Amino acid sequence: MAEYDYDLFTIGAGSGGVRASRIASQLGARVAIAENDRIGGTCVIRGCVPKKLFVYASQISEDIADAAGYGWDVSDADFSWRKLIENKDAEIQRLSEIYEKNLNKAGVVVHREHAQIIGPNKILLTPSNKTVTAERILIATGATPVLPDIPGIEHAITSNEAFHLDELPRRVAIVGGGYIAVEFAGIFNGLGCETSLLYRGEEILRGFDGDLRKILHEEMENKGVRIQTQTQVEAIEKTGNGLLLRLGGGGTLETGLVLYATGRRPNTDGLGLEEIGIKRAPNGAVAVDAYFHAGKNVYAIGDVIDRIQLTPVAIREGAEFARNAFARKDAEIMDYEFIPTAVFSQPALSTVGLTEEEVRERYAGVFVYESRFRPMRHTLSGRNETMYVKLVAGPAEGGGPVRPGSLLGAHLVGRDTAEMVQLLAVLLRLGATKEDFDAAVAVHPTAAEELVTLTNMRK
């Protein structure tokens, strides 16, 4: 008889937890997973997927406006927020059911309950009060939005609630400057809301390439988003006309909705980690080693470890954990180099590798190739929107692990650039050089051909 009920018990059925559980089960492990919400986690239920559907919906307003330049008369087009919400909800439910079916097909036992670690190898499920045991326990509970402690914060919402608004507000104020803030600014602006973005920093999207940040700022303002940087919200007051934001320095802003996107906190409360000696960072993140080991028989992956909060990263971490635990003789460390990412702002910002600033800090003799241009789709639409592409190459002589002249960063702003950056990530991982790009034949006419025809260089 087995010593434990399961070889692996996963707490949290988001993208990372589901992937780890499925792979572990396919490798022969006896696996169970606990989830007290819908299966799918943040990305499927209240993150990437519904957000991207909203982005598509908001872009259609520009497509309609641009259609006249191509001979189309669509002046009688109408939009229904309620219909968008209904269709989005149906799609999310469909995806959640697919996730659960895939778990069942893989032989993973699904517990639709809250799980708490109550001792070495022991988990308590509530409300059933059932106790199960497992050789390994994997924490994959993700993260949740946090709100600051300011007067009137109860009048604000987070991205979680933004997906379920009863009606579309006429005016929206978004507080924050990261992925979620700039994405929702584009969404609400595209759907016709008077949109303001308030950020306490000097420029939006801290940590991204400097040129991308500035150019996206310009393009968003050209589309009508009002961006106020170095602005702190000190209080929110409810008025007869909506909400009043009191800003640092004495300024105010009237709006109908306040959405906060100023950070996320790992979901680790109530898991019983302290009771078994598992350490947490000040923000609640589970401290793990290179193999996702938190201590004893407990492991953690995804947003809950607060390394890189991206769904594909959590998925890869889950796969690496499962293969190390149940397949590989010698454990392998996950490679975090050249992870591509896209901010589905409007226009989109897509990037992989090091920023220009980071490359210059590490190496001398850096080469930067860039181009800012009007995409062909707007030659007839008349829209004042540009695209930007940048390749950052390392020194010609190389150095350390860097191949001479290899591309260390690729950065783009423009619609559909996320489709480009996925393949750029493969090329950068393989050590492609600017000469390799120059040797490639362009696909014409496309925006992507700029990547293999760049001649504007600066050191």
Q: Features of this protein?
A:
459 residues, alpha/beta, 8-stranded mixed sheet, 6-stranded antiparallel sheet
Strand coverage percent: 15-25%
Number-wise, the strands total 23
- For the termini, the CA-CA separation is 67 Å
User: Could you list the spans in which at least 5 consecutive residues all have pLDDT below 50?
Assistant: none
How much helicity do the residues have? 25-40%
Q: Give the number of helices.
A: 12
Shape: globular
Q: Radius of gyration over alpha carbons?
A: 24 Å
What would you call the structural class?
alpha/beta
Summarize the main sheet. 8 strands, mixed
Average pLDDT confidence is: 96
Q: What report would you give on this structure?
A:
The chain is α/β, with parallel strands linked by helices. The protein has 12 helices and 23 strands. The longest helix has 25 residues, at 81-105. The chain is globular. The model has no long low-confidence stretch (mean pLDDT 96).
Brief sketch in words of this structure:
By secondary structure, the chain is α/β, with parallel strands linked by helices.
How would you summarize the topology of this molecule?
Layout (H helix, E strand, L loop, with lengths): L5 E6 L3 H12 L4 E4 L6 H6 L1 H20 L13 H25 L3 E3 L2 E6 L2 E5 L3 E10 L3 E3 L13 H4 L8 E5 L3 H12 L3 E5 L11 H13 L3 E3 L4 E7 L2 E6 L4 E4 L1 E4 L3 E3 L26 E3 L2 E3 L10 H16 L14 E3 L5 E5 L2 H7 L4 E7 L4 H4 L5 E7 L13 E7 L3 H13 L4 H6 L17 E2 L1
Parallel strand pairs: 1-2, 1-6, 2-3, 6-17, 8-9, 8-14, 9-10
Antiparallel strand pairs: 4-5, 5-6, 7-15, 11-12, 12-13, 16-17, 18-19, 19-22, 20-21, 20-23, 21-22
Helix pairs in contact: 1-8, 3-4, 3-6
